[in-house]
Amino acid sequence: MTASITTLVTQTIKPRRMNFEFSDDIPMDWFAGDPFKSMVLTALSATFPDGERFFVDSVRQFQAGLPKELEREVRGFIGQEAHHGREHENFNDMMQRKGLPMDDIALFVKKGLGFMRKRLSPERQLAMTCALEHLTAVFAELALTEPDFFKPMDERMKPLWYWHAIEENEHKAVAFDVFQHQVGSYWIRSSQMALNTIEFFFFSGLHTYQLFKARGIQRDWAMHRRGFSEFFGRNPGWLRKMSGAYFAYYKPSFHPWQRDTSALMNHWKEVYQID
Ligand SMILES: [Fe+2]
Ligand SMILES: [Fe+2]
User: Fold this and answer.
1) How far away, in angstroms, is 73 Cα from ligand 2 center?
2) Is the residue at 233 inside a domain?
3) Is 166 part of a structural domain of the chain?
4) Which tens digit of pLDDT belongs to each residue from 182-192?
């Protein structure tokens, strides 16, 4: 079944080479001096290079026969994800030098995704990419709409995370449009989202735990309580705030550009001089 492409906003998807350097004097707790938030985002970063390679490969399998405009967007998407992987590898190396098991986590992710490549049909692999790209776009939207979220982050780390958030928003509809054009099954798209949401939280929790354990802080219950309440509690409840954006994906008529984040992106591009 082939559904029509419903792109509402067209963004130029421009791969940008950034060449960030991460100095070793950036503290281990680079996010607000808070081990919980710092390790949650560090664990995510460990999964990015292989995760993003999986996204690119899953889209590549459906590249033939796309309309010209979408084909161009796919090239932009591939370029952006390749640069994200490279920059996050630099950051991950810096955290590895501090004694965190970043390479072990990356190897685990690589093996897990190798299993998915063998077990899942190409359609399901693409739906998995759409699901994870939606989760990424929702987190990126959180970073762009709530300046207080990234505000207490070490200034040397902000350009990496803002740049990544901006580009994730720029290309948030690419895998989705490829899926709608080449597969178009609501059942595959929505069921894969439900599965990947569970997997995402399970494995993000596991990798964060591995980092806590390497530091010997896995039983710091006060830290866990504070962290959970910051993400899921009443105030500020960063992830709770984004639940509407997340659940919109399950509407049959959903399209990523129904949430127009262009103005937000332009604002942050100016702040970080990203052209
Ligand atoms: Fe990315
Ligand atoms: Fe992405």
Assistant:
1) 12
2) yes
3) yes
4) 999 999 999 99
